[in-house]
Amino acid sequence: MNGAKGREDLLAQRSFICFCGLDWWYHNRAHSDFQLMTRLAHTHDVLLINSIGMRMPTPGKSSGFLKKILRKAKSMAKFLRTPVPSLPRYHVLSPILLPLYGSARMRALNAKMIRAQVRFAAKKSGIKNPIYFVTVPTAWEVLRHEDTDCLIYNRSDKHSAFGEADGGYIESLEKELMDRADVVLYVSRALMEEEKDLCGDKAVLFDHGVDTKHFTRIPEEHLPPETRDLPRPIIGWFGGLRDHVVDFDLLRATAETFAEGTLLLVGDATTPMDSLTELPNVKWLGPRSFEEIPALGSSFDVAIMPWKQNDWIKNCNPIKLKEYLSLGLPVVTMDFPEVHRYESLVRIAQSPKEFLEGIQKALDEDRGEEKTAQRRKSVQKDSWDQRVLDLAELCEKILEKKG
Question: Under DSSP, is residue 90 helix (H, G, I), strand (E, B) or coil?
Answer without folding.
Answer: strand
